[in-house]
TrEMBL record:
Residue span, PAS domain: 11-72
Name recorded for this polypeptide: diguanylate cyclase
GO cellular component: plasma membrane
UniProt GO molecular function: diguanylate cyclase activity
């Protein structure tokens, strides 16, 4: 029979065996000296560092990814000083120089006077959880991307256009720079669909979209499908003459496609009508003002016979 004096030691051994048989890695730190008083042997299996190599808090700090160090150390120290239990996720360095995602769950032990005496915690391997979170984040990002993409042509959709135009309008207003908008409409597209069928019409829209992408050479320029057979381009920091040149390139690249259109009333190949508007945003105006102006010029291009560009810089460009 075990005596009463032997039981505490026996209980301690049982507790230690139970703790060290789990995947969680237990540890304790003396607050006054900032030294580890214990760390479970599982640490060597996970990170390769022996328990004996964890001497002070500095060992913990130095074995943390540099990008996580300032954030995690600052947070944990502040919480510990306040006597608040806490947890933190970070990347811990293995002995081979790789990194493993760790979650540290920390309990602050206080004395009778309320002062912090020690920290007791558990390290958890959360690699699988982080991997799942990253995959979920990638999936969400892809879904978000798709929500801003026109499913037929692959260019941005109207929702994305609205967001980009609002952003560029605010930036142009802040910088005092001009902002230009180009709106294009495929001439007699209903007749194209009626004559060749909707499948061929879809292919036509894809070809037009890809051709228009090649007309812009600057990274910030934006192309989107406005709706139906209409496309729109946002040109930041672009004055009226420069926007006119881009519009001409757009019209030219469509003509170069040589897409046969027997139902067109302006020739035997596919053409576009184009409106161009430029504005220097002010506090009083809105992005909708610019849309209204470019839409008015697109309408004028159609009224003047289609296959042409109407711009503020050049009121009318005769069709080729």
């Amino acid at each position: 029979m075990t005596s009463g004096t032997e039981r505490p030691e026996h209980d301690h051994d049982v507790y230690r065996t139970l703790v060290e048989s789990t995947k969680a890695i237990p540890w304790t730190i003396d607050w006054a000296t900032m030294r580890f008083t214990y760390i479970g042997p599982q640490i060597e299996t996970l990170l390769g560092w022996t328990p004996e190599s964890w001497v002070t808090v500095q060992d913990w700090v130095e074995r943390m990814h540099p990008d996580d160090r300032e954030r995690v150390v600052g947070f944990c120290v502040a919480q510990s000083q306040a006597g608040t239990d806490h947890e933190a996720d970070y990347r811990a360095m293995t002995r081979d120089g790789d990194y493993v995602w760790i979650r540290d769950v920390v309990h602050v032990v206080r004395g009778e006077d309320g002062a912090v005496r020690s920290l007791v915690g558990f390290m958890f391997d959360i690699r699988d959880r982080k991997r799942s979170e990253e995959q979920l984040a990638q999936l969400q990002a892809r879904l978000e991307e798709l929500s801003y993409q026109d499913g037929l042509t692959g260019v941005a959709n109207r929702r994305m256009f609205d967001a980009v135009l609002e952003r560029e309008w605010n930036e142009a207003r802040r910088a005092g720079q001009p902002l230009s908008l180009i709106m294009l409409d495929i001439d007699y597209f209903k007749q194209y669909n009626d004559h060749y069928g909707h499948l061929q019409g879809d292919e036509c829209l894809r070809r037009v979209a890809q051709a228009l992408l090649s007309a812009s050479t600057r990274g910030r320029d934006f192309l989107g499908r406005f709706g139906g057979e209409e496309f729109v381009m946002v040109l930041p920091d672009t004055d009226a003459p420069s926007a006119m040149r881009v519009a001409q390139r757009c019209r030219d690249v469509i003509l170069e496609q040589g897409i046969v259109h027997e139902g067109s009333r302006v020739g035997g190949t596919l053409t576009v009508s184009v409106g161009v508007a430029t504005q220097r945003p002010t506090e009083e105006g809105t992005a909708f003002d610019l849309i209204a102006r470019v839409d008015k010029r697109l309408y004028a291009a159609k009224q003047l016979g289609r296959n042409r560009i109407v711009s503020e810089a050049v009121p009318e460009v005769e069709r080729a």
